[in-house]
Amino acid sequence: MPISGLSDPSLFREQALIGGSWTDSTSGKTLSVDNPATGEIIGTIPACTAAETEKAIAAADSAQKRWKTRTPDERAAILMKWYDLILASLDDLATIMTVEQGKVLAEAKGEVKYAASFLRWFAEEARRMDGTIITPPQRDRRVLVLKQPVGTTAAITPWNFPLAMITRKCAPAFAAGCSMVIKPSELTPYSALALAVLAERAGLPSGLLSIVTGEAKEIGPVLTASPTVRKLSFTGSTRVGALLMEQSASTIKRLSLELGGNAPLLVFDDADLETAVAGAMGSKFRNSGQTCVCSNRILVQSGIHDRFVARITEEVAKLKVGNGLDPKNTMGPLINDAAVAKIRAHVEDALSHGARYASAPLSTDGRFVTPVVLEGVTSAMRVSCEETFGPVLPVFKFETEEEAVTLANSTPFGLASYFFTTDISRAWRVGEALDFGMVGLNTGSVSMESAPFGGIKQSGLGREGGHPGIDEFLELKSFHMAGLKF
């Protein structure tokens, strides 16, 4: 059933955007998309094949050759028009996202604004792609270091942030003078398609952006094998990221990979208790715990441990789980049945190894899962080494700073980490010792358009956002000029 209540129903599209045309798959096959809160079918999308993907790549290559000749001001103006249109459609975009993804409407509106912020940021960065001049030893020579667009690019985006993970990739690409073919998650395609409708209205040239809907196994290998696609940006699991690296090897493709995490959140005895509780709540339960930077392991020093557990359990009890369209609810459903099964497995494993409920016991109803707090958690449990991706808050106890840092770093992942302290010396020591691409001090949030986002180790390659975000889509060219007369 189509999404009701939209002020602009034309934002809801059930066709792919291939090379400037809204189209079905040549195979005639479609995929159904459901509402995780109700299980009802929202609509269908084309199950695109290699044929559609190759057509999108060819169109992107053609459009990019013209786009790269546009001035930075011209590119920036279109991105800013797109930014304005997204904010003007905030309510509709948020409704589409909540219906297909499940997050509560307030969070969906926050994501729409966050997604738009990347267009504004990179519209401004488009004007600052300055190269350098090198003075070599030879008197008659100068070297210009130019920054030029990579060319045709592709992105594979996840379901948990179906708007922001697109604009965080395509905004710098377009600002730099690149084109992009996007394969959104088949679980949440309608946000991407609505975004493309607004891009067309903003004046983005035909073919510069394509949205190829369908299954990753059909579309992904075409993107990775294509010599025309010079860069691939992916957000998702480490397992899939490794596969994409392997598939891209033959074309020596540039990669940006934002992969899995196992974020620790450390609370030291000297921390402000209420600040730590608020930070842990925001970090853990945002989007029902379904974010790559959610705190997955809560490490609390023994002196503050009992008070922290008591306070955060009180706050968790206030969360209201239900359909995200109902404003009284503060947490929506999980994305699918597999996600629910994983939560059950992690909790059961922890309890079987000696953990205890500090909150009410786990309860599930369809894809709705009550948030729980576990205490007495140890490194012998799955929650310590696997990314839970759901509303389970496991509390570990530690004694010393050294122990906490060792526990925090005992993971192959290195995306986000958080810690709470009022000791400025400890802040420097721990901040530098945590082996993660992003560290939050006295905050549970590390995501903004103006700061680089990304991980180390098995959490990925490259950075999105901030000043480095546009460099991911630029090549350096050394232009040697000789025979100059002085």
From TrEMBL:
- Which CDD domains does this chain map to? ALDH_F5_SSADH_GabD (cd07103)
The answer on whether this UniProt entry bears the keyword Oxidoreductase reads: yes
Per UniProt, the keywords (alphabetical) are: Oxidoreductase
UniProt-recorded Gene Ontology molecular function terms: oxidoreductase activity
Query: By its UniProt entry, which Gene3D superfamilies does this protein fall under?
Result: Aldehyde Dehydrogenase, Chain A, domain 1, Aldehyde Dehydrogenase, Chain A, domain 2
The question of whether Oxidoreductase is a record keyword is answered with yes
Q: Catalytic site residues?
A: 258
Q: What is its EC number?
A: 1.2.1.-
Q: Kindly give the PROSITE patterns that the UniProt entry links to this protein.
A: ALDEHYDE_DEHYDR_CYS (PS00070), ALDEHYDE_DEHYDR_GLU (PS00687)
Q: Where is each Aldehyde dehydrogenase domain found? A: 22-478
Which family is this protein grouped under? Belongs to the aldehyde dehydrogenase family.
This chain's protein is named Succinate-semialdehyde dehydrogenase
The species this protein belongs to is Acetobacter musti
